[in-house]
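Board notes (copied after class):
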Amino acid sequence: MTILAFEGLSKNYGANPALRDVSFDVPSGEIFGLLGPNGAGKSTLIRILMDIIRPDAGTVRVFGEPRRREHLDRLGYLPEERGLYTKQTVADVMTYFGSLKGLTRGEARRRALEWLDRVELANVAGWKINRLSKGMSQKVQIASVLLSDPELCVLDEPTTGLDPVNVRLVQDLLMERRKNGRTTILSTHQMNQVEALCDRVALINKGRLMVYGEVGEVRRRYSLPEVRVRARGAIPPLPLIAEAVHEGDSTWRLRLADGTPPSDLLAALVRAGAAVERFDPLLAPIEDIFLRVVREERA
């Protein structure tokens, strides 16, 4: 089921195009990675979704229908530009944000205290916001977004300023949302988090959609035809091998000749007498794909 669809979105700032006919779907219940270099159009896309700005052309559909203002109560948004009311207490600010999403004040207060406990900040409920460290403030803002349990949530660089322990805590919260059927759009430059968390990605560059698909499928599509082989002894020269690099000990990195399926190479190695102990097709990391696509576009 599709929870969000962008259909032919275009947006110009004066003579500068920010989005150029962008279309893609976000399936329900996934963690979706929104990727792109600085200035690619990601923030414009998010602001259009949240009805902060309007597109010049195209449509946003959420929950199976054109997005309306009343849908925003079912959406959560953590913007890149953070902001909390610094002279208010943590619990009061979170309660206020919950009430903006339609919760009663009592329910919003209850959830605020519950979420502070979940992000390991129960002791700061009565603190003024200006007492918080950067990492603590970041966790308060994440909890403020999630306490209303939004069906669709957009998080822009949510782990900025967090140490590894708290990065893992936030990742666990996002995986719990997915388990509960909630959808999260993760806009980030942290490619390791994309590989660890995301089911699907969209890569935007210069306002255009360049890459879209399931993470595994995207990695296969953009990977070089290479395998890593562990074998006792040398790798025999074969016409199916375009290049062989000895990586040390008994491990080799093999580039396949054009059009050669990895299974054919494995069969040929065995027939040639190679003592193969391990044979793994190599998938390009998302970071390498990101860099390749962006550099090719710039060239």
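Comment from the instructor: The mean pLDDT is 92. Residues 145 and 204 are 25 Å apart (CA to CA).
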